[in-house]
Amino acid sequence: MTGTPSGPRRVFVTGASGYIGGRLVPQLLARGHTVVCAARDPRKLQCRAWASAPGVSIATIDLATGSPEAAMSGCGAAYYLVHSMTSAGDAFRHRDLELAATFAAAARRAGVGRIIYLGGLGEMGDGLSEHLASRREVEHTLAAAGVPLTVLRAAMIIGSGSASFEILRYLVERLPVMVTPRWVTTECQPIAVANVIEHLVRCLDVDATIGATLDIGGPDILDYRSLMRVMQEELGVARRLVIPLPILTPRLSSLWIHLVTPISHAIARPLAEGLRNRVICRDDRAVRLMPFELLTARAAIRRALEHQSSSAVETSWSDAGPIPGDPDWAGGRVFVDRRECTIRADRAQVFAAVCRIGGGHGYYAADLLWRARGWIDRLVGGPGLRRRRRHPDVVRFGEALDFWRVTGLEPGQRLELRAEMKLPGQATLEFTLADGGADGGTRLIQTARFRPRGLAGLLYWWAIVPLHAFVFRGMLDGIRRHAERAVIRVVAG
Predict the structure, then answer these.
(1) 3-state secondary structure string, 371-388?
(2) Domain 335-492 carries which CATH code?
(3) d(CA 33, CA 349)
(4) Could you say which of 94, 310, 385, 456 would form a disulfide bridge with 402 (CB–CB 3.0 to 4.6 Å)?
(5) pLDDT tens for residues 356-386?
(6) Cβ atoms of residues 267 and 86 within 8 Å
(7) Residue 149 phi/psi, 5° resolution?
(8) Which phi-psi region, left, alpha or beta, contains residue 61 (left: φ > 0; alpha: ψ -120 to 50)?
């Protein structure tokens, strides 16, 4: 029984700003559904291409402090796509259960027809990693509210921008010889992100999935060493030597992943722990209930690499998570480095040049110093300079650019970046555009602010002040040159 399409309906989606939710919403809209997107900060969604489409509404909801009951009213289904992607002992598990309980209780009171949850695939029993065990607990919590629950369990999700894919690609791309834990011989059944989204959308129209727990996976079952070989072949690099060592613990593995890839050790730890579990579909019920062509692991990797090379990455693992508010600059000394210049270009050209900083483009000047700062940050546990940008020229609110996060965005007027590097204080870098005055052009004001924390913060600021002339002045001059060259190219064209 595959069910009969029941027509468009009103659907509630949590996690719409995350990796899966950001891809699910446009597919739901394409099938004619109306979608209510829940977000802690609606600015993370407003710059998405689908945010202003007919049939989309955005509700400002933080499950940790409020109930989504009112926004859920009239919804036939609600997707729960909230996951803690860090490993912090009982704290993250307890928080996940609290959020799930709040969501499920609100769904019951609002009369929602069903809850759909994307969980983690893995063998049952006491040997589950803490991360997978938490996913099982969330399933039980959602089911306990009494609303019919559909659970889709997926293993490794392969897609441009996914954390698992980024780890795999960076390891194979950068390391000709890999010393790995024993988990490289563990079998898995990876699935393309496009197929995950298809399952999530199709199950709405298949009544037999109501109340069911379904394992979803691609057509291939292979160990991680074989998956690395496929990645190596698709990247076109020389054969990689893989040496498994039993002494590498999940903690050591996560630190190694942190140094080699853009993924932080906090996110890499639960992923590394989960890799010790064999993750294979127990049956083919999902395929029988929702039949469609599944991508092989090779095809999924090839498609993900093509999307990255063409800057067609819809969402990224770094999109999710809370965005810090404006720094509380009151009550303490704030150091300011403010510089400005007038550029012979219009606002659009200047803003485009500003938006190209970071994420692989560099910083227009002193790139050696920026790279050194990035390596230091990686060594002390920060993100460093490896968080690639989704698009080479366009940024959006909430996006990660190296060790910065976009926390202010007014196209053509203002871009604010907040530092997520390891620092003894709070730092922001702001670009503001204004009219150039009587001489025309555009005035660009660049402002770096730093609020030190303790003596270490003061020492840090005074240590880097001599470098500002190279770093910040060079950045401003580089932006000016790039924007003015763009004007010349337009005129010449």
Answers:
(1) HHHHHHHHHCCCCCCCCC
(2) 3.30.530.20
(3) 38
(4) 385
(5) 988 777 899 888 888 888 888 888 888 887 7
(6) yes
(7) -120, 135
(8) beta
pLDDT tens figures, 172-207:
887 888 777 777 788 889 999 999 999 999 999 999
Q: Report DSSP state, residue 275.
A: T
Pairing of strands 10-13, 34-39: parallel
Helix (H), strand (E) at residue 140: helix 130-144
At residue 302, what are phi and psi to the nearest 5 degrees? Answer: -60, -45
Is residue 235 a contact partner of residue 172, using CB atoms and an 8 Å limit? yes
* CATH hierarchy code of domain 10-316: 3.40.50.720
Listed by start position, the domains of the chain span 10-316, 335-492
The per-type count for the chain, helices as H runs and strands as E runs, is 16, 19
Helix (H) or strand (E) holding 298: helix 297-309
| Phi, psi for 484 (deg, rounded to 5) | -70, -30
Q: How many CB atoms lie within 10 A of CB 192?
A: 21
CB contact at 8 A, 292 and 202:
yes
Query: What are the backbone dihedrals phi and psi of residue 210, each rounded to the nearest 5 degrees, phi first?
Result: -65, 125
Helix ranges (H only) for 327-439 are: 347-354, 367-379
What's the predicted TM-score (pTM) here? Answer: 0.74
Q: Quote the CA–CA distance of 131 and 273 in Å, as a whole number.
A: 8
> Max CA-CA distance within the chain?
74
What is d(CA 46, CA 58) in angstroms, rounded to the nearest whole number?
9
